[in-house]
Amino acid sequence: MKRNKFTYKFLGIFSLFFIVHFTTNAQIASDYSNVKFLKMLDHDTSYVNLKKRIINDFIHAQPGHWGEFVKGVDEDFYTKQKYIAFTFDGCGGPKRNGYDAELINYMRKEKVPGTLFVTGKWIDANFKTFLALSKDTLFEIENHGLNHQPCSIDGESKYGIHGTANAAQAFDEIEANARKIEAITHRRPIYYRSATAFIDEAGARLASKLGITAISFQVLSGDAVPYTPVPVIEESVLQNIKPGAIVIMHFNHPEWNTYEAMQKIVPRLRQMGYHFVKLDEFKLRSEKK
Ligand SMILES: [Zn+2]
Fold first, then answer.
1. How far is CA 77 from CA 84, 198, 271, in A?
2. How far is the CA of 6 from the centre of ligand 1 (A)?
3. How much is the pTM?
4. CA of 96 to the centre of ligand 1 (A)
5. CA of 287: how far to CAs of 36, 71, 135, in Å?
6. What separation in Å is there between the alpha carbon of 271 and the centre of ligand 1?
7. Are residues 72 and 106 in the same domain?
8. Do 27 and 108 fall within a single domain?
9. Sequential pLDDT tens for the chain (289 residues)
10. Cα 147 to ligand 1 centroid, rounded to whole Å
């Protein structure tokens, strides 16, 4: 009888802890949701004043060239050694909110570092996973935009995805997500890869005014074309690899062949003498500077 009472008491306390713990976590996740976070920034004078200044700077700006490799965008890094960086986008939004746990577990098992570009939308859909990734020193967290909109100051689109309509929206896309990531991880991202990697020259300049470097990639793995066969991804990477290359892949589509291809790519690159690094360990560069 006595033991039963104790058991019930213990279970009661345990359940209470369980409920408080999960309610608190859910509350924290919802406080950082894109909608709430933007509302909070609307009352943050440092954000509002910076936004006004940036909008003013770009009031008469021309967008310049639109593309993946325009002026102001970096695509690889300086090194004389056989170092390369794997980068993975977590795009977010309907049908883009997935998490490739097999890929991430494989990288952990093989101790392959990677740089993860995440959107605010992806964080909202995967808050607990995001927290765990941000605490894992194998991974560097960088900025893929708040709402996964290609970065334009005049409303360009790419692959049917609407870009930001003006400098104000481009500012929110870059800076609000940088602040959101910093608020959650206590580290401000230093790189920004626009959704689809398309950006205009003004957008790259805008990012630079925020202390953020716009980047694209040097080696296109091709994993983003759904159901690309493993050998195609493998060869796309292996045939184009060189020291200082930034390889672009995704970690938000477990149904694609990214993980399966990485199982082939990593051992082959190691045989070729390559080592894998995160982006913040090197100085990036662009051919167009
Ligand atoms: Zn993306």
1. 9, 19, 22
2. 53
3. 0.92
4. 8
5. 39, 9, 34
6. 30
7. yes
8. no
9. 555 776 777 677 767 666 666 666 777 778 899 999 999 999 999 999 999 999 999 999 999 999 999 999 999 999 999 999 999 999 999 999 999 999 999 999 999 999 999 999 999 999 999 999 999 999 999 999 999 999 999 999 999 999 999 999 999 999 999 999 999 999 999 999 999 999 999 999 999 999 999 999 999 999 998 889 999 999 999 999 999 999 999 999 999 999 999 999 999 999 999 999 999 998 899 876 5
10. 10
